[in-house]
Specification:
By secondary structure, the chain is mainly alpha-helical. It has one domain. Helices cover 76% and strands 4% of the residues. It has a two-stranded antiparallel sheet with strand order 1-2. The protein is elongated and about 70 Å long.
C-alpha cells in the first residue's frame, strides 16, 4: 500500500467528506460568480459609456416638428449603476472567498491533525462567506429598486407625451442596468447557497 493511501485512510471519514464538499462547492461557486461578474462588469461598462448619450427628441407642438438633441441624465439609473458597482466589488470578494473554500478542502486533506484546520476555523470561514453574500445581495437589491423605481416614474411621465415625455423615454441601456443588477444578485445567491450547503454538511 502506498504512503498516499496510508495518509488517506488516516483522515477521519467525516473530514474526507467535508474536504470533498468544500472542493465541489468552492469550484462551483468560484466559476459561477466569476462568469457572472465578468458579464456584469461588461454590461456596466457599456451602460456607463452610454448613460448620458444624446437623445433626439421631437416636441409635439401643433404645426411644428423640430427635432432637438438633448443630453438625458437619469439620476435613478445612475444610482442603480453605483449600487450595482458596489455589489460587483463585493462579488469579487466572494470569488476570492470561494477560492478560500477550495484551499480549505486541500488543508482538510492533510493527514496531520495538528496542521488540519479546526472545526471553529471552518465554521468561521463559512460565516464570513454568508456575510459577504448577504451584504452583496442587500446592496445590489437597493440598486435594482432605485433603477426600477426610476424606470417606472419615467414610464408614467411618458404617457403624457409632449416635450417632457420625449425626454423621459426608457432606453434599452436602462434595461441593461437592471440586467446587471439581476446577474450580480444571482451570483451572490449561488454563493450563499454554497455556503449554507457546506454549513449543513459539516453539521451532519
Amino acid at each position: 500500500m502506498s504512503s498516499r493511501n496510508i495518509d488517506s485512510y488516516s483522515i477521519p471519514p467525516a473530514v474526507r467528506r467535508a474536504a470533498s464538499s468544500f472542493r465541489l462547492a468552492g469550484w462551483v461557486s468560484l466559476w459561477s460568480q466569476g462568469v457572472l461578474a465578468i458579464v456584469s462588469a461588461l454590461v456596466l461598462l457599456f451602460a456607463a459609456a452610454n448613460l448620458n448619450s444624446p437623445v433626439v427628441s421631437q416636441p409635439t407642438i401643433p404645426g411644428v416638428a423640430v427635432p432637438t438633441t438633448t443630453m438625458v441624465n437619469n439620476p435613478g439609473t445612475g444610482l442603480g449603476s453605483l449600487f450595482a458597482l458596489i455589489g460587483l466589488l463585493i462579488l469579487l470578494g466572494g470569488v476570492f472567498w470561494a477560492y478560500r473554500y477550495v484551499m480549505l478542502s486541500r488543508q482538510l486533506k492533510v493527514a496531520d491533525a495538528q496542521v488540519r484546520p479546526k472545526r471553529t476555523t471552518v465554521i468561521q470561514a463559512l460565516q464570513i462567506g454568508i456575510l459577504i453574500s448577504l451584504s452583496g445581495i442587500l446592496v445590489t437589491l437597493m440598486g435594482a429598486f432605485a433603477t426600477v423605481g426610476s424606470l417606472f416614474g419615467r414610464s408614467v411621465t411618458q404617457q403624457f407625451g409632449g416635450i417632457l415625455g420625449s425626454l423621459q423615454f426608457i432606453r434599452p441601456i436602462d434595461i441593461l442596468v437592471v440586467q446587471a443588477n439581476i446577474n450580480i444578485i444571482l451570483a451572490h445567491f449561488i454563493a450563499l447557497l454554497a455556503s449554507l450547503w457546506l454549513l449543513r454538511s459539516i453539521n451532519r
